[in-house]
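Figure S7 source data.
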Amino acid sequence: MNAPDGTLHTDFLVLGSGIAGLRAALGLSRHGAVLVVTKDQPSESNTGYAQGGVAVAIGADDDTRLHLDDTVSAGAGIVSGAAARVLVEEGPERIRELASWGARFDREDGRYHFTREGAHSRNRVLHALGDATGWEMVRALLERAHRTEAIAVRSFACSTDLLVRDGIARGCRFLDEPGSETAVLARATLLATGGAGRVFAETTNPPVATGDGAAMAQRAGAALLDMEFVQFHPTALAVEGAPRFLISEAVRGEGAYLRNAAGERFTDELAARDRVARAIVRENREGRGPVSLDLRHLDAERVRTRFPRIAATCRRYGIDITRDPVPVTPAAHYVMGGVATDLHGRSTLRGLYAAGEAAGTGVHGANRLASNSLLEGLVFGARAAEGIADHAMGSIREELQRRCWQALGLERDGSSLASLERWLDERRQAAPTRPADRAAAEDRNLLDVASAMAASARFREESRGSHYRTDFPSPDERFHGHTLLEAGAPRLVDVETPVPEGARC
Ligand code: SIN
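Tokens for the predicted succinic acid complex:
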């Protein structure tokens, strides 16, 4: 909605259109209007560049306990166990959901194909279109978001600061391409702005990854968590003048070797990322570099079909990955820290939420397990939507009371009652069918009873006793009776016997 001063109004504001933001937007769309603000085209995010895959314990030889153990040991002693359990246990359902929304994960012989990546005890990395997993996942989410009426997307809009009043985040300001500034006011704001790889000279991240969420949250007074933990991916393409294009860990998972300039292997290619990255730096520092990835011993046809995007990109720089060593170097890849949140995305600032790479839940500890990030975006994006919806329902009471006081108070009229009814209907549809606590149960009751009052008051087109209608200021004999409301429909019944004795025994 656009106010006369140009301020936009929405129920929920989502900053960022990667996997976490879009999944959250889809969850929120059941509860109100969602505006997604994204600073480039919607498909441009870290998610779109994620190649190797998404780790999920749904293979026949796998279970969530093993995935949890691997996640915890990669995180070097400071993984939040509760967050990691949520990730691995809710991950399978989120992946099945996304597949049912059209994401095409790769199969072999009709079954999902799982590849291996570093520090995983099982082959559990699901992939799509060979090495374009993030692109495919975000495609499925974006297509669904575009089909969802309650979601609007504002592209090429760079959010600059959060709007905070009375200690509550109430939206943001953003700049359009031509540099004009717009304010958006919302009941809740979700930061899903992705990573901050662009802090570093060498990074696999696209230009959009400038840490916008953590920076805006910090300026607004929210706490950040674990900002010192930055993951460096061991293998970015090291061609002079070319961007540090990611050469997926899945390439090593499928058997590629790392070799120094003398052609020697010098590390376990599937060790944790930090160890492999430091081993490469050591080879370079001690004069045994440059280091390259060697796929020449692998089946060339399989390499080309498994990694089409990597093959095509390397070809642009004159490298045939089936015949030539691929020069690689470590590059900043993922920030484990972010806006400190609980398991439903709630930050320390009221009204502000975060999910995905922008958030710091403690789920990755000091080092993220390979391919846990796409899963994180899906799982915690969905959870943030739940957290926001709970908050919205929690804070609905004040708004309900204000609206009812205005439209259903001492003086009433037909059109205000009709618009109150519309508002109540929308909120009733969004209310949980099984409230989680007393406040939610009471809110649902308030919505229902207010709706009954509004329907009855609109039906009675006269003024009588406590019921005063400015559009019908006198009593009217046509309404000499009681209002019986059944299944939401009001009708007039007899004064003496509104419900005849024994009528329904
Ligand atoms: C990769 O394909 O190596 C990146 C996946 C990730 O960041 O976990």
